[in-house]
Write a structure and sequence with these properties.
This protein has 182 residues and is α+β, with helices and mostly antiparallel strands. It is 35% helix and 15% strand.
């Protein structure tokens, strides 16, 4: 049996990329295998873990569940598209600074889901952050640092001076320590 191949131009991270791929391949497979954009991760490949989250026309989708042939004339953004030159996106900065990315496997999907949230809600509540990230599983962090990183990135994106409390970086302060150092 001959495998049907498709030639398409996909708009990925603001750039038109012509690619040839089997018609049955998912967006995840084409991004990783044909375009060498390996930041988007293979996870469960069942749409349950969120590690493959990318943005399509600004909306988060699970690339393991979307066929690449459905992406004609749509804007696709992967984690590789966040950084501009040497400047990190505020989400990348805060995830790194707060230790929100431990093993890092879930991080690309979390970053993309959070980016979509901040684009539509520049001042999200904790509940909105939790709801936006609910489809992304992390086995390492316990989510507290992830939520704090999204809150901090939202403040930075709004141009606000914000720094999480010292306890976020160093744990709960000793009694009376806040008075001495804060």
């Amino acid at each position: 049996m001959i495998e049907e191949k498709v030639t398409m131009t996909l708009r990925v991270n603001g750039e038109d990329r012509t690619v040839v791929f089997p018609a049955h391949h998912t967006l995840l497979e084409v991004l990783r295998e044909e375009l060498a954009l390996t930041g988007t991760k293979h996870g469960c490949e069942l749409g349950e873990c969120g590690t493959c989250t990318v943005l399509v026309d600004g909306q988060p989708i699970l690339s393991c569940l979307a066929l690449a042939v459905e992406m004609k004339e749509r804007a696709i953004e992967t984690v590789e598209g966040l950084q501009r030159g040497s400047a990190l996106h505020p989400l990348q900065e805060t995830f790194a600074d707060l230790g929100a990315a431990q093993c890092g496997y879930c991080t690309p999907g979390l970053l993309m889901a959070a980016k979509a949230l901040l684009a539509s809600h520049p001042r999200p509540t904790r509940e909105e952050i939790c709801a936006a990230l609910a489809g992304n599983l992390c086995r390492c962090t316990g989510y507290h640092k992830i939520i704090e990183a999204v809150e901090w990135a939202a403040a930075l994106a709004r141009g606000e001076e914000m720094r999480p409390p010292r306890a976020v970086f160093h744990g709960t302060p000793e009694p009376g320590e806040e008075r001495r150092h804060g």
